[in-house]
Amino acid sequence: MIRGLPEPYYKTKYGAAYLGDSLEILQSPDLLGKVDLIMTSPPFALRRKKQYGNVDAEEYVDWFLKFAPVFHSVLKPEGSLVIDIGGSWNPGQPTRSLYHYELLIRLCGMTDHKFYLAQEFFWFNPARLPTPAEWVTVRRERVKDAVNCVWWLSKSPHPKANNKKVLRPYSESMQDLLRRGYKAMLRPSGHDISTKFSKDNNGSIPPNLLEFANTESNSRYLRACRQTRIHPHPARFPAPLPEFFIKFLTDAEDLVLDPFAGSNVTGEVCERLRRRWISVDIIKEYLEGSKFRFEEFCLGNWLEKSGQKSFLIRDGEIAFGKESKSKKREPSRVIQQAGESRKKMEQKMLINYRESSYSKRKQ
User: Fold this and answer.
1) 204, 221, 250 - which closes a domain
2) In a domain, 1, yes or no
């Protein structure tokens, strides 16, 4: 990894997670101009305080701008900064705060550390709950807020990017058009569509509206947090969101940074896509739980249906949580604990699986 950084909280094949304040950890001169992409979802300026710590809308812009010079300095000249940022409501009335637009204008208006707005994206989460309840479900004066703004910023007007890496499958109608061929013509809108429109480009260019449902409820990460009594991060973006931008804006072996890592979804995606990564978070419990996203911190060779290596060791014949009738051995599970050898963990943390299953059946 990068020299000059402190000892990581943990590391994997492609990256490392650091515990502490990003403003301090990212000050290393060895990191200057080394990062290809900063992909992050900082704490939002919400009306209610959250466990992960969030700043009021009135203070948010000034708070975030403290990080801007550091982000600008660690990025390569063709690097990008992608910020997933949710909106907020003004206290006591059904009107929207403009804090995230103010932040965008300020970031693009700095003289010493200027960013360019490469493009604005919008993440639509169809599974979002209808909030705020007062205005949406009680008084019925507003519709549910289901879209986050995602600002794609860059150090130069022409950052590294390639939309061929994020093409979407053609629709059935487009596939049919490619089979039949397309007659060049002037459309009613005035656009002159040439014969090049009938060329098969292996997919369609995606729009800047990204639809990903945030419905994670029983992933390995969440199950492992429950089993170890670690509080999972309450505001995780779905893996397809950072995956889109990591594919779009980086290549294999490029370096991706998440300065507000939380449960380290960004690091997990980078590991899978063979991107080097650095993640930083100020809350130890969130980093501890984020270990469960990586193969290095899973015990045993038992695989889940998804193909992921399971966090659990299961002695005896256990198939996806169901005990085999052919064997009578009592299964057990091992809980991964930081800083302990695997042998010590197995001796110290064995928990009887059958006993827990029996208690659940009684309920």
Assistant:
1) 204
2) no
Tracing tokens 């193969």 back to the chain, one arrives at 295
Most confident of 59-63, 213-217, 299-303, 359-363: 59-63
The reply to whether 244 falls in a domain is yes
Same domain, 26 and 66: yes
Q: Which of 8, 42, 259, 331 is catalytic?
A: 42
Helix intervals (H) in the chain = 22-25, 57-65, 68-74, 99-109, 133, 172-180, 220-228, 240-249, 265-273, 284-290, 342-348, 353-362
Which segment of 219-233, 306-320, 333-347 scores lowest on mean pLDDT? 333-347
Active site residue 73: no
Catalytic choice (22, 36, 80, 84): 84
**Active site includes 145?**
no
264 and 343, same domain (yes or no): no
41 is catalytic: yes
Q: Report pLDDT digits (tens) over 96-136.
A: 999 999 999 999 999 899 999 999 999 999 999 998 899 99
Nearest to 154 by CA among 85, 79, 102: 79
Active-site hit among 8, 22, 36, 41: 41
> Residue 57's beta-bridge partner residues?
none
Determine the Cα–Cα distance for residues 329 and 300; give it in Å rounded to an integer. Answer: 17
CA distance 244 to 246: 6
Residue 89 and residue 215 in one domain: yes
The residues near 6 (Cβ < 8 Å, ≥ 6 apart) are: 18, 20, 25
Residue-range definition of the domain harbouring residue 221:
10-168+205-296
**Cα–Cα nearest to 182, from 191, 173, 195, 169:** 195
Asked if residue 86 lies in contact with residue 99, where contact means CB atoms within 8 angstroms, the answer is no
Examine the domain organization and report whether 342 and 214 are in the same domain: no
- Dump pLDDT digits (tens) for 177-192: 777 777 766 767 777 6
Residue 17 lies inside a defined structural domain of this protein: yes
